[in-house]
Amino acid sequence: MSGSVQLAAIMFTDIAGYTAIMGRDTEKAMELVRKSKEIQKPMVEKYRGKWIKEMGDGVLAQFNSAIDAVNCAIEIQRASRADLDADLRIGIHLGDITINEHDVFGDGVNVASRLESVADPGGIYVSESIEKAIHGLSDIQSRYLGEISLKNVDYGVRTYALQGVGLPVPDVGNKDLKGQFWAEIQRRGVLRAGISYILTSILLVLIVRRTQLVESLPSWGDLALFVLLGGGLLAALFLAWTYEKGPSGFVRTSSDKSWKNPLETTKRKPLTSNLIQMGLIALIAVAYFFPKINGKPVMTDDSEVAASYYNKSIAVLPFKNLSGNEENVYFSDGVMEAILNNLSRIRDLKVISRTSVEKYRNQNMSIKDIARDLEVANILEGSVQRVGDEVRITAQLIAAENDEHIWADNYDRRLTDIFELQSEIAQTIADNLEVIVTTEERELIKNAPTANLKAYEQYLKADYITTNSKSDILKAIRLCDESIKLDPEFGWPYVLKARLLANLSTYGYEKSIWYDSAMVLVEQGIEKDNNYFFGYSTKAQLYDLVHLFKPAADLFRKTIELNPNYGFAYWMLGQYYMMNQQPEAAVEYMLKGTSVHRMENFDSNLANGYFLRQMDMELACKNFQISYQNDPTNFQVLEELIGCSRYYRDLESALKYAEESLKLRPELVNAKNMVAESHLFIGDFEQAEHYYREMIGSVNEFKDQYAIYPFIHRLGYAMMKNGKKQEGKDLMEKYRDQLLQSVADQQSTSYGMGEFYDLGIIYAALGEKEEAYQWLNMASEKEKTDGAFFRTEFLLTDPLLDNLREDTRFMQILNDKMQQQEEMKKIFHRKLSEYHTNNELMWLNAN
């Protein structure tokens, strides 16, 4: 059998109960068929259909469009209700048909005929293909009934019933329909009502949180609020299931009035329109993100509000080890840090970082002086005494202004209760300070990282080790491995080991050796404990190393979500906003981080040091000097002082600080680099070459004497100045070619100065000025989108730029950089004055 194939809308009609009528009254049955055809045929012609054939009491018609078929069916039903003493059933499907002479065959015909056979008397059933075709093209309404299994059709057909005045309510009880409940959910608009209620509830909770309307409620206030809103949701869903709005008021959704309701779903269910829901989402976004810029309640001129915020601040001093064994200091420090980290999870509480309080460990200062120095209202001090499996913790919370004890207690517990005890102390402190602790924050505080105390102890020992040498790092890594072996599900040692591997880069280990392993470890740590804020921060830093700044920023936001008092994450987000040319947000994040993490202690000189230099070099250098006086052994402060000395062209002091750094950390490649570089800047090229060669010798993973190290161009420059012109030039050109290839491949080195700047100074040193300006200008532009690739102090003093210093184009680059810093300085001091209004960051003052 051959014929043409085409897509068409097929309509099948028949008379409901015709067989029974024929059995009772043959003449009446024949008259019904005649009148039915008289009604239908003109309608088919009116809507440009093709009358295919008659099959007893049934009619098969073909239409070129779905909308014509549906309109024809509706008009046929309207006419038959008036003129025919019987009900018609109609089924319509859009599908492929095969036309052979005067007959049609195919899937379109089969489905339409089967839909007609299951339709209700007086009703019209259509397939999903028809519903999609007419959706939005007319005011015809339909309701999804579910997926129906039709005889001789080997797949389920998603079926819709047309609705309106005169059309019956479908009887789905005796039909083989799947997904009826979900279809009814959609018809009654329950999902829309639920979404609107949930969005309204979220907005209400955020308003309560941000405006602190529940601040005076007891600790169970949060639970009561959520129970109330949860009960309201159930009530809203029940009402949506049961009632809807019609033209004359509310009607039951199970009634005929509901089926004949001409209103759209969003009008049947008030306040569920797309526009209203989008408006609620926009309000939620404003309520959620706006307060997170500064992470604290909005300050007003009301001194009581400012005082309330100040009173919700605390510093946790290092706990004293009373165990009679110095080796147990790691344990007392671990207890102190656990309590501090638990408190840090509370957004309504300002908590000073551990490193910021470390300098008070052995200082004989009064509580009042320490609190004034740290700009907090409360101090927690305590002690830990461990004897075998027994532990005693003593803690006291002190209001610093009048040196009064707010709370104090002694706890004698077994070692197995240590996690529960640390959480209990943190929650007791929060309750005594009357801060808001959300249900989620309480759950995070209660969370125990491991049930294996041996694994926890090995982790604490690893974390306690000061990684000032390669041997220390390797020892700490071994302890992490032991901890992981004791409890493979304990996430923290995985993260710590990742950080330790990254620290190996300071001893000459190339990124290719440790980076992939560190990334695998940190991802394992997060998988095993997805509430460990340090895991997300560590992964973000690894991303930052390979210039994946956007995902790094997202992870730092997640870190702050879990620990709103983690200063380093704020600094790094500030860097991200700086790179994206959002200086206002950059300064805000930097100051927020500095408010909980003091300047004299660094997690990374790229963070706090970089920002303060960009915003006010004079103020930065002043504070670095204070930090140096407080702790002359702080390696990163010495790095910052080298930069300050170069900025003010005091190259002798820069060399002095570099030499101190090398004495402090003789193993570090970076320490040798600072000494070599300082000799180069001062014009002592022989010593510069000597130290650069030492650096090559210290990186024993490479055999080639002149392998491509990130400092090889500076060694080449020193050699040129020492009379080895050709050999030095060869080294510089070798490094230049690698950098050009790196840029062409869109790869990045892990060193902060950046390829563009290095290419600029290499071309400048080789006397190729046009190429030098090309790359320096590109570095200046890239700095705005990809981070700080060159610093003002290098533009001022880098000897490889000496060939350009008298050129107006170079002066323009330098002036642009200085102007950029002046603009940042204005923003910085404006923002800083807002903190000073609330008696914060008073120590960070240029006066």
Low-confidence stretches: 212-219, 291-305, 600-607, 700-707, 748-753
Q: What does the main sheet amount to?
A: 9 strands, mixed
Q: What is the molecular shape?
A: elongated
Tell me the radius of gyration. 38 Å
Strand content: 5-15%
Structural class: alpha+beta
- What is the count of β-strands? 17
Mean pLDDT score: 83
Please estimate the helix content: 55-70%
**Helical stretch count?**
37
Euclidean distance between termini CA atoms: 99 Å
Brief summary of the model shown:
Helices cover 58% and strands 13% of the residues.
Describe, in plain words, how this protein is organized in 3D.
This protein has 37 helices and 17 strands. The protein is α+β, with helices and mostly antiparallel strands. A hairpin with an 8-residue loop joins strand 7 and strand 8. Helix 1 runs antiparallel to helix 2, helix 24 packs antiparallel against helix 25 and helix 28 packs antiparallel against helix 29. The protein is elongated, with a radius of gyration of 38 Å. The termini are far apart.
List keywords for this structure.
single chain, 847 residues, alpha+beta, nine-stranded mixed beta sheet, six-stranded mixed beta sheet, 37 helices, elongated
List the helices and strands and how they pair.
Layout: E1 4-15, H1 18-24, H2 26-46, E2 50-55, E3 58-63, H3 66-83, E4 88-100, E5 103-105, H4 107-118, E6 124-127, H5 128-134, E7 141-148, E8 157-163, E9 177-178, H6 180-188, H7 190-211, H8 221-242, E10 243-246, E11 249-252, H9 256-259, H10 265-268, H11 274-289, H12 303-311, E12 313-316, E13 320-321, H13 329-344, E14 350-351, H14 354-357, H15 367-374, E15 378-387, E16 390-399, E17 404-414, H16 418-432, H17 439-446, H18 453-464, H19 470-486, H20 492-503, H21 511-528, H22 533-545, H23 549-562, H24 567-579, H25 583-596, H26 605-615, H27 617-630, H28 635-647, H29 651-664, H30 669-682, H31 685-698, H32 712-721, H33 725-744, H34 755-765, H35 769-786, H36 792-797, H37 808-837
Parallel strand pairs: 4-6, 12-14, 12-15, 13-15
Antiparallel strand pairs: 1-3, 1-4, 2-3, 4-5, 6-8, 7-8, 7-9, 10-11, 15-16, 16-17
